[in-house]
Design a protein that fits this description.
There is one protein chain. This protein is an alpha/beta fold and 395 residues long. The protein is 42% helix and 14% strand. It is built from 16 helices and 13 strands. α15 (364-373) links the parallel β12 (349-353) and β13 (378-380). It is extended and about 85 Å long.
Length: 395
């Protein structure tokens, strides 16, 4: 019955497996969304889509599966999409009052509604507003927008107002979740979730359901068991470039920082400017008076930590290559020396660059830092970029 739907999903390059399709059919057989068309859509989406980036592909495949309804009558529509007549009838019983159902019967039922719409589309030659017959706006005709009829077909209206439309006739517009777009906090969290290693720690305050069942069966009485909560055990030390050319990226970096604090329970963060040198800080207001020696971080956080640098890598090449090259202070050792020390201390490392990747090759300092970390270890601050970076750190 839904094989064409599955084929369209695969054709849209949605990574839908046969197991997910069978789970979808099993849910339908169990009656999870019987007579609920909205529920059917959301159930299908929940079952088939495992990544937010694929929502648009799913919607397009869903629309393609049920397209063409405006060109056929009601009986052909039900046959074309395999929707039984009793679905429509039960849906009406569920959502419409007795008076509203009587009004529909007076018009002639769902089949008559669709037939009348088709006829009026042929007869009407101009825009109509108000009234009770022609297709238009702000009236009581069952066809149009911004009006009211208990058995309406919505045409030309941006969104639902009374939730009475039997059918939405307008072409749906989709918004791509493009893997190359810059991210909001929510999407960043989705990308960061790839970097996970689960472990149980803390107090034993989470219900151990399987242990409780086993202990109760063995002892003959209710024996509640608890266990430590499962948490992400990944440890991250985060270095954030601030000031200068990073100012235009403040909002985006703030979103990344907010998402990282939520996702990683073991997170330490420090600020630097342009390049890593002998000192970093945690409070930008006290960047000169309360710096932390970089050597101290190298001694404190072991190789089990993963290091992430966030910066546009745009600076004078001297700031990377020469002692005294820093633009705000005299650095006894070149920035490259400190970057290599960090890379060696934390072999699992990454540099996230908020600057458009197209411009990297035009900046010498960016190429220098890429050569220090490795070309694949610098990724753009996009959904695809962070996703790629998290995969690297997960190795």
């Amino acid at each position: 019955m839904f094989l064409r739907f599955f084929e369209n999903l695969r054709g849209a390059k949605l990574p839908v497996s046969l197991r997910e399709y069978l789970s979808f059919l099993e849910g339908l057989r169990a009656g999870l969304v019987t007579y609920d068309l909205d529920g059917f859509y959301y159930f299908a989406r929940t079952t088939m889509v495992k990544d937010e980036r694929h929502l648009d592909r799913f919607d397009r495949a869903f629309a393609a599966t049920f397209e063409g309804l405006e060109h056929i009558d009601a009986g052909e529509m039900l046959e074309a999409v395999d929707i039984p007549q009793d679905w429509i009838e039960k849906l009406a019983e569920k959502h419409l009052s007795a008076e509203e159902r009587a009004e529909i019967e007076a018009l002639g039922g769902f089949d008559k509604l669709m037939e009348t719409l088709k006829q009026r589309l042929k007869e009407q030659e101009k825009r109509h507003q108000g009234g009770s017959k022609w297709i238009g706006t702000a009236g009581t005709s069952p066809f149009g927008a911004y009006g009211y009829n208990p058995e309406g077909v919505r045409i030309g209206q941006h969104e639902s107002r009374h939730q009475r439309a039997v059918k939405v006739w307008d072409k749906r517009e989709f918004r791509d979740l493009d893997g190359n777009t810059e991210l909001g906090t929510r999407n960043i969290k989705v990308a960061l979730k790839r970097l996970r290693r689960w472990a149980r720690d803390g107090a034993a305050d989470e219900l151990d359901l399987s242990g409780t069942i086993r202990a109760t069966a063995e002892n003959g009485y209710l024996d509640v068991k608890t266990r430590p909560e499962r948490r992400n055990a990944v440890k991250v030390v985060l270095f954030l470039d601030v000031g200068g050319s990073m100012d235009p990226h403040i909002k985006l970096v703030e979103e990344l920082f907010s998402a990282a604090k939520t996702e990683f329970k073991h997170l330490k963060h420090y600020y630097f400017h342009n390049c890593l040198y002998e000192g970093v800080w945690t409070d930008n207001k006290r960047r000169w008076s309360e710096q932390i020696e970089t050597w101290e971080l190298l001694r404190t956080f072991g190789p089990d930590y993963k290091s992430i640098f966030v910066g546009d890598a745009s600076m004078s090449p001297y700031e990377v290559a020469y002692p005294g090259g820093a633009n705000e202070h005299w650095n006894a050792e070149a920035g490259e020396v400190w970057l290599r020390r960090a890379r060696d201390q934390w072999p699992s490392n990454l540099w996230i660059n908020p600057l458009d990747e197209r411009y990297w090759r035009h900046t010498q300092s960016t190429q220098m830092i890429q050569s220090i970390f490795g070309a694949d270890r610098m990724v753009p601050m996009t959904l695809n970029g962070i996703d790629r970076g998290m995969r690297l750190l997960s190795r």
